[in-house]
Amino acid sequence: MNFRIFESVDELTSGAADAILDELRGDGPAVVALSGGSTPRPVYEILGSVGMDRIASRAITWVTGDERFVPPDHPDSNARMIQQTLFARGIPPAHQFLRFETENGDPASVAAAFEGRWRELGIERITLSILGLGSDGHTASLFPGTNALDAGGVATEVFVPRLDTWRVTLTLPVLREAATMFVVAAGEDKRAVIERVAAGEELPISRVLQGAGNAWWLVDRAAYPKIAEESK
Ligand code: 6PG
Q1: How many angstroms separate the alpha carbon of residue 37 from the centre of ligand 1?
Q2: How far apart (Å, rounded) are the C-alpha atoms in residues 206 and 195?
Q3: Ligand 1 atom nearest to 167, measured from its CA
Q4: Radius of gyration over alpha carbons of the chain, in Å?
Q5: Using a 6 Å cutoff on CB, does residue 78 contact ligand 1?
Q6: Phi, psi of 85 (to 5 degrees)
Q7: Residue 63 and residue 8: Cα distance in Å, rounded?
Q8: Which ligand 1 atom is the nearest neighbour of the CA of 190?
């Protein structure tokens, strides 16, 4: 496991933004999968305020990694959070944003429509996947014990009993094929699950990272697992 450890959440936030911008230097089309949740929000705020100018000329397709099945103007919407942060100053002309259009149908048809659009755009592989981590080891909406983990294709709907809610998400095969992955995690409550990953437990995040060529854990000191410290 490759770790970059930051002494505080603020340093993690700015460090993650810098790592993303560094990764997106260069030419040619790029596809960036965006995690939802609270951890990446300040990272997207930095990218949307001062970072975007550095990558505005590159043809970037931003895609939501997953979505809560709520309207796009709902406070829980990942797409809404991304619009308010990463795209606070608008979307550069060379960029495009592919989201799950939860306003246009039921979970299965929304996932299918997203997949159709993905294929229309000719997306073959994620260039950079920004992943969050739940304390149960989920990432995107690949929750433990759900059928999402067995889904093929590009996107799938999933009912999450623990949350009593539907979600739509990129699938394990698509996330696993990303060229580069950054798992961004902060806080004491994430250390225990990272320790479980470091100990070899097969959680959804572990399965996404399996065989990954270029995967990095960007964590603050509170989330950094002692097991990794001891195994040094
Ligand atoms: C979501 C995310 C999800 C998130 C984790 C961690 O839609 O919520 O895609 O996978 O990354 O639940 O969330 P926090 O960053 O809020 O702890």
Answers
A1: 4
A2: 11
A3: 7
A4: 17
A5: yes
A6: -120, -75
A7: 28
A8: 17
Residue 45 Cβ inside 6 Å of ligand 1? The answer reads no
How many Å separate Cα 156 from the centre of its chain? Answer: 15
Amino acid at 158: V
Distance CA 210, CA 52 (A): 31
98 φ, ψ to 5°? -105, 115
Task: Indicate if ligand 1 lies below 6 Å from the C-beta of 134.
Answer: yes
**pLDDT tens by residue, 90-119:** 999 999 999 999 999 999 999 999 999 999
- 19-48, pLDDT tens digit by residue? 999 999 989 999 999 999 999 999 999 999
48 CB within 6 A, ligand 1: no
Place of tokens 């306003």: 103
The contacts of residue 51 (CB under 8 Å, 6+ apart) are 17, 20, 21
CA distance 58 to 152: 30
Q: Tell which one of 12, 13, 39 to mutate to probe ligand 1, the residue whose CB is within 8 A of the most ligand atoms.
A: 39
pTM, entire model? 0.96
Distance CA(82)–CA(28), nearest Å, equals 23
